[in-house]
Each structure stands twice: as structure tokens, then as C-alpha cells.
Backbone:
């Protein structure tokens, strides 16, 4: 099972691992005081989260309330792509969501691991579904998800 650890900002350094070798990373989520949630992945999670927090403070005056992350994963990019597809639609860009997203991430992670082999084929399938969503909408994307035999999350 993919663990999901959550900490207040003052303790985030303890749960975020240091720089990881190329090819592995962590999936993280940061809940901000302006009710936005940033979901992403990084092989340098301490630096990346610090950068996101700094940008939100500088541009929007928003402070982090909670930070969550997985342990290092060899397939973090694939896991992130699946999460982004299942959390959609984003509020801003492709990685910014509302507060419920922060609460849904652990459940989605458990479902992803329990039901799906994750790797490059899965990432390609998720990208195909994302392209269908952009071109034809949510309903067609859900149908494409099922046609590709991807797990229900």
C-alpha cells in the first residue's frame, strides 16, 4: 500500500525526503490558506515544496496549512498523472484543485496501488485519456478510461 504522510508546515521537512536519484520521486500535495491544493511530484521534494510555498506567499499571500507526501516511488510521475486525471477538473492550470482534493488523495492512492500496475504503459494510457478529455469532455474521457481497462478510482 502506498503510504500517505501528512504534517503541518513546521514538520514538513521531517516527512519530505531529501533529493532522490533520477527516476524516482514523491507525490505531494500542499493545502493553502486560500483553499487551493497543489498536487505534484518531484525528485527534489524539499526544494519543490519550498518553491511552491514561497510563490504562493509572494503572489497570493497564502500560507500552507498541511503538506502530504508519499514515500519515494520509482513511478511517481505515473502516480501523479493518475491522480491528476482522477481529481480533474482542476481550478487553475493542471495541478491546482479545491480543498476536497487534499482529502481524496490518500483514498485514490490506495485504489491506484490496489488495482493497477503503474509504469510507462499506464502513464501513456492516462495521457491518452487526458487528451480525450481536453478534446471531447469529461463523459468521453470516462468512457475512454473504461475502454482502456483502467481501474475505477
Residues:
Amino acid at each position: 500500500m502506498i503510504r500517505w504522510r501528512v504534517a503541518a508546515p513546521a514538520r514538513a521537512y521531517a516527512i519530505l525526503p531529501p533529493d532522490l536519484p533520477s527516476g524516482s520521486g514523491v507525490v505531494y500535495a500542499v493545502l493553502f490558506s486560500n483553499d487551493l491544493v497543489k498536487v505534484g511530484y518531484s525528485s527534489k521534494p524539499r526544494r519543490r515544496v519550498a518553491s511552491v510555498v514561497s510563490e504562493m506567499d509572494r503572489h497570493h499571500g497564502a500560507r500552507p496549512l498541511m503538506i502530504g507526501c508519499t514515500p519515494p516511488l520509482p513511478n511517481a510521475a505515473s502516480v501523479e498523472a493518475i491522480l491528476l486525471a482522477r481529481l480533474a477538473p482542476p481550478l487553475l492550470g493542471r495541478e491546482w484543485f479545491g480543498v476536497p482534493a487534499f482529502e481524496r488523495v490518500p483514498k485514490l492512492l490506495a485504489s491506484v496501488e490496489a488495482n493497477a500496475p503503474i509504469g510507462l504503459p499506464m502513464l501513456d494510457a492516462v495521457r491518452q485519456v487526458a487528451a480525450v478529455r481536453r478534446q471531447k469532455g469529461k463523459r468521453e474521457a470516462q468512457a475512454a478510461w473504461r475502454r482502456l481497462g483502467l481501474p475505477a478510482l
Summary: The helical segments are 12-15, 45-60, 76-87, 99-115, 120-136, 138-147. The first helix runs from residue 12 to 15. The mean pLDDT is 84. The two ends are 15 Å apart (CA to CA).
